[in-house]
Amino acid sequence: MKMKSMISFAIGIILVATTMVTHAADRKMATAPADFLKMTNPNDMDDLDKKFLKKAKKVYKRKCKKCHGSKGDGKGSAADDMEIQPTAFNKAGYMESRKDGQLFWILKKGSEGSEMEAFGPGTDANLSDEEMWSVLAYIRKEFTK
Ligand code: HEC
Q1: Whose CA is nearest to atom 42 of ligand 1?
Q2: Cβ atoms 107, 120 nearer than 8 A
Q3: Residue 87, exposed/middle/buried by CB under 10 A (0-12, 13-18, 19+)?
Q4: Cβ contacts of residue 97 below 8 Å, gap of 6+?
Q5: Per-domain residue ranges for the chain?
Q6: What is the pLDDT of residues 59-89, one digit of tens each?
Q7: Band of residue 56 on the pLDDT scale cut at 50, 70, 90
Q8: CA of 59, closest atom in ligand 1
Q9: Potential cystine with 67: which of 38, 76, 106, 142 (Cβ 3.0-4.6 Å)?
C-alpha cells in the first residue's frame, strides 16, 4: 500500500471507531460556538412576573412537554422509545451546569442526530428569539434542582 492510501485507511478506521464510541457511551451534546456561549438570558431571572411565566409555560406545554415532560424530567409521552432520551432539566445540578447560550443554541438549531429539532425562526415551530429566551427562563425557573 502506498503511504497516502495507508494514511487515509488509518483515518477511516479512527473515524469509524470514534463514531461507534459516541453512540455507545453517554451522549455528549455538541458544544455551542463561542458567540452563543457568551449570550445570557435577557430576562431578569429574579423578576419574572406571573403573566410572563404563564405565557412561557403555554409554549412549553405546546411544544416541549411531550418529550421533556411536565416536570421537566425528560419523561414526556413521546420519549418512551427514543434512542437518545430528552434532557432531564430537573436532574440535581443540571441546569446550573448549562450556560444560557448553550441551551439557546440547541433550542434554536437543534441537536444533530437526536429528535431535538430546531425551533428557531424559519423552522416549522418558528419561535422568535424572544419566545425561545422566555421558554428557557421558564425552564430554569421551574425545573432547576
Ligand atoms: C421530539 C422530542 C423533543 C421535543 C418536542 C423537544 N425536545 Fe428538547 N431535546 C430532546 C432531546 C432528545 C434532547 C437531547 C439531545 C441530545 O442529547 O443530543 C433535547 C435537548 C434539549 C436541550 C439541550 C439541553 C442542554 O443541556 O444543552 C434544550 C435546551 C431543549 N431540548 C429544549 C427544548 C425546548 C425548550 C423545547 C420546546 C420548545 C424542546 N426542547 C422540545 C427532545 C425534544
Answers
A1: 116
A2: yes
A3: buried
A4: none
A5: 28-143
A6: 999 999 999 999 999 999 999 999 999 999 9
A7: very high
A8: 38
A9: 76
Architecture of the domain whose range is 28-143: Orthogonal Bundle (1.10)
Residue 116, C-alpha cell as written in the block? 431535538
132 C-beta closer than 6 A to ligand 1: no
Count of other CB atoms within 10 angstroms of residue 6? 10
Nearest CA to ligand 1 atom 5: 64
Q: What percent of the chain has pLDDT over 70?
A: 86
Pocket test for ligand 1, best of 106, 127, 136 (most atoms within 8 A of CB): 106
Secondary-structure breakdown of the chain: helix, strand, coil percentages, each rounded to the nearest 5:
50, 0, 50
Q: What is the pTM of this model?
A: 0.86
* Ligand 1 atom, smallest distance to 30 CA: 18
CB-based burial of residue 7 (10 Å sphere; 0-12 exposed, 13-18 middle, 19+ buried)?
exposed
3-state secondary structure 39-70: CCCCCCCCCCCHHHHHHHHHHHHHHCHHHHCC
